[in-house]
Amino acid sequence: MESQCQPALIALLLSLAVSGCAESPVPEAFPQEAADAWLERYLANDAAGVAALYTEDAQLLPPDAEIVEGRAAIQEFIARTNPPGGPSLEIATVETLMFGDHAHRQGSYRLGGSGGGLPATGKFLELWKKVDGQWLLHREMWSANTPPPAAPQPDAATDEPA
Amino acid sequence: MNRNHVAPWVALIALVGLAGCDMAKAPAPFPQAAADGWIGAFNSGDVDGLAMMYSEDAEVLPPDQPIVAGHEAIATFWKTYNPGQVRLEVSAVDSVRLGDYWYREGSYSALFPEEGEPRVGKFIELWKQVDSAWLLYRHMWSTNAPPPAQMPAPESPA
Q1: Nearest-CA distance B137 → chain A (Å)
Q2: Quick check: A154 pLDDT over 90?
Q3: Phi then psi for A137, rounded to 5 degrees?
Q4: How many domains does chain A have?
Q5: Count of domains in chain B?
Q6: Model's pTM, two decimal places?
Q7: What CATH code is carried by the domain that includes residue B74?
Q8: Considering only CB atoms, which chain A residues are within 8 Å of B67?
């Protein structure tokens, strides 16, 4: 082997060594179309369609209620809490973070008043997971920004930290 | 450089490459010391110490209240709990590393003074590494049942 080949060989090996570690392709954008589909189906009272946007082992973490786990339970929950004729819902994305096959989204929501009731605002955190190439909701937690109207105003925080 | 000199170079470069990959992919455990520090500060009533366990851009997302952002507001917020008077424990904790963050979820039990039964709930946390410290970036929780005097239907999800 000629001596002038050595720098090229070393450069090639270095390049291979470095490229073997570099596994950071262009970051994928947050799957907004999946989030849009969720809202569209929710507003159409399509509980089964909404549930299909969750992973098989997804969890809803509702306020003042136990964790709801799995598509069947999520469908039942959505159908029960979002009957036809219910209030409107608007969602705004505040922040998204992409982590390969996971995505984090924080947002705010506005639940329109129904029957003369006042609208309610709140916030949410979501963890999305890419399963077989499809982005699905894996964890979803939300809470209102104010206590329920019927509840007495507490002196301090009504819930406790974790 | 002759052929005999090439082999050590190849071996060295390959070794460096592999070692670099191993270091980059070595799984780091969840920063349990930071989480334990949070619980310890809460249970001992160290509100200022508690606030410093959040990143500068942290947000606390409490139930039935607006988002609380920033160290000063977070310290003021936690003071309302009289944290030294509440006995807090977490369980059923799971965590997953997400890039430069850690996602953690679990259950909690908080025994308030003059309450016979602890309040039980669930939480989600997003931890962020700032310099060498792991700090809370997002923190959200809620109870598993409404307060005894209040029994509303669960609100719609967002």
Answers
A1: 12
A2: no
A3: -75, 135
A4: 1
A5: 1
A6: 0.80
A7: 3.10.450.50
A8: 123, 145
In a domain, B150, yes or no: no
Domain span at B135: 31-143
Beta bridge partners of B97: B102
CATH number at residue A58: 3.10.450.50
In sequence order, the 6+-apart residues with CB closer than 8 A to the CB of A51 are: A71, A72, A74, A75, A78
ipTM of the prediction = 0.80
Q: Model confidence over B11-27: pLDDT tens digits?
A: 544 444 444 444 455 67
Report in angstroms the alpha-carbon separations of A134 from A41, A53, A100, B65. Answer: 17, 9, 13, 34
Domain that holds residue A85: 28-142
Contact B158 A123 (CB under 8 A): yes
Q: Which residues contact A38 (CB under 8 A, 6 or more apart)?
A: A50, A53, A137
Of B78, B122, B155, the CB nearest to A111: B155
Report if residue B17 sits inside a domain: no
Cβ–Cβ gap B140/A143 under 8 Å: yes
| Of residues B143, B141, B145, B146, the one with CA closest to residue B123 | B141
